[in-house]
């Protein structure tokens, strides 16, 4: 085909403007009559145009099978769907296809392009937000683990909030909302979610309708409107899907290290505030400036914070352990076999009875762990002192060196009973901190005191605060006050003393 653009334009000018004979043009430029007609019909070379689809005699009988496999693939896990090569192998080995791979590749590409879904751009109104959980690897106190990454975004201003938690659950879901609202300075009017089981109790039709009691409590406290995406339609919250990856790449690379989740979340909150200086494509204002404007559309924060807690009724077993969230926590042995109430939040696990806290532990987010407080078992050890060196709750309990020195002195001075005296000293931890008792034990050793009563007196004396002397400065009237001496004659008469 004649494709030289200069000659193309020259031929069109001569024929259409100068009215030169078409036959002479064909002779001069050595082109066919049909080629000349094509030049005169088109401003530029139209390229190759296929008159009809190319025949595929070898693949045509297998097209229904191929299309059915591709259709079934849409229900399969995304990472276990057929590649083009795997489709070719199956057609060849299972169905007797004798054609080539390229022909299969063209059919698969055309089918996937025809099945690809198109999406409508959505309006991002001020006050709208989207929330989701993702995953991120973090290093907390030297332990690397995959944490739950909570992200909430304001779609209008592109403001982002993120926080990491040990696990995705109702408590961390509520805590993420509380922290996000505090960071934004208000509550979004409408929040979009996927159909997470934390919020959706059941799915009706294509959307979550039956929400959980705890999600209703969250909504009732903050008064926002909720919206759930259609099942398997994450594009309806594409804003948070995109910024979740943005937060992971920009705030959590390299893998962050921190002493606790709270410390890491404080750093992430600083990163989110710093990100407000970013300008989104198509905007002339920074995200922070847009957020200041958007705050007028946010709901006010409630005066009282949401009570984020999980309450369960439990019973302590014979080992003075309470099971909660697949872990065992110790309580004082006097509460063994008794019913207690567990009140847990993101950081602490407390056991209560009749409104009194009987045990308080740092929450463990692992599984099948036992968390002991050695002090809980000292009362039982006083009755069974022979188990002091074999008690599992005391294994690994590292006490200052002065306690070992006191134990040796008590054994020397009291013989076999010295072990009971030592346990009684340890029981002072039920009312004092380890730092306070350590100072009292060190002073007792210096004073060569080897009795629990002596350590107790030292402890109580160190706790006493001397009364400050009365300062008369600034009270000029007090020195002029005169108090007459009391009359003690009646007292002396009762004592049989002579009157002066």
TrEMBL record:
Pfam families: Mu-transpos_C_2 (PF22483)
GO molecular function: nucleic acid binding
One GO term (biological process): DNA integration
UniProt region (Disordered), positions on chain: 468-500
Domain of life: Bacteria
Transmembrane segments: none
InterPro entries (alphabetical): Integrase_cat-core (IPR001584), IstA-like_C (IPR054353), RNaseH_sf (IPR036397)
Residues annotated as domain Integrase catalytic: 122-269
Similarity-based family: Belongs to the transposase IS21/IS408/IS1162 family.
Protein name, entry field: Transposase
Annotated organism of origin: Singulisphaera acidiphila (strain ATCC BAA-1392 / DSM 18658 / VKM B-2454 / MOB10)
